[in-house]
Amino acid sequence: MSPRELAIVDEGRLTILRQAYGLFKSRSRFGPAVWPHHDILWFHSGAVRFRADGVGWEELTAPAGLWIPPETRFEGVAGRRLVVDSITHFAVSDDYWPGTVLMPDPPLRRGLQAMIELSQSYSTDGIGPEARTRLLSVILDAFCHSQETAQKADPVDVAWRQAEDRLAEVRGIADVAAMIGLSESAFRARHRQRHSASAGQHLIALRMQAAERALATTNLTVQTIARDVGYGHPESFFHAFRRHTGRTPTSFRNASSRFA
């Protein structure tokens, strides 16, 4: 990672220490590392496997990232494609941060990525310290909001959020149920208490929404998108997508490109 020289920014509770972009080649490892400061580690493209303090492995697909507090041991492995990441090292007063690794909710990630990219551009364009720390404060608030939401969330909704991040690995409802330690029948029953559509319909909708986003915003092949959203055979994905949208994946992409 090549650092960009920056002025230190201080606004009482926040001090920006360093900001930079970096690249990880396919299958390359990073860490284990421990930093003495806070960091927003953000993945702008590609996918990684990541863990902190030796607990579990998270599959993160861009846009995605973490707020890593000081003295947290972390490591990761890049996926099949080149990974573009950025760091924001900063100090923050103890009464501001929640004291644990935080990940933002999936619906917030695209907006957060735009703010993080703007923050990186501020660092190289000579934008003043007040604006830069104000923007970082908004970014941190989004991470904190995600933690508050997770604490209040029903376990079924937690499982669906995790499934949305791991669609390629989810073979069926049993896999979603296992994320919160429930049997498939118990999960289906609890799902029906909160949603009008069945659990099976909900999973298909998540796959199709992810496929639509990928078709509209990336150049990935239909075969790759099929695999990424959980279909082992492109033909199965083709028929499911056509049933759900009334269009083939290619015609959907062509129609979307007019608005890109």
Strand order across the largest sheet = 1-2-9-4-7
Mean pLDDT: 84
Question: What is the N-to-C order of secondary-structure elements (H for helix, E for strand)?
Answer: EEEEEEEEEHHHHHHHHH
- Note the overall shape: globular
Structural class: alpha+beta
- Tally of alpha and pi helices: 9
Low-confidence stretches: 1-11
What is the CA-atom radius of gyration, in angstroms? 20 Å
- Main pleated-sheet profile: 5 strands, antiparallel
Bin the helical content. Answer: 40-55%
Strand content: 15-25%
Q: Distance between termini?
A: 31 Å
The count of DSSP E runs of length 2 or more, i.e. the number of strands, is 9
What does this structure look like?
The structure is a single chain. By secondary structure, the protein is α+β, with helices and mostly antiparallel strands. It contains nine helices and nine strands. Strands 1-2-9-4-7 form a five-stranded antiparallel beta sheet, with helices on one face. The model is unreliable at 1-11 (pLDDT under 50).
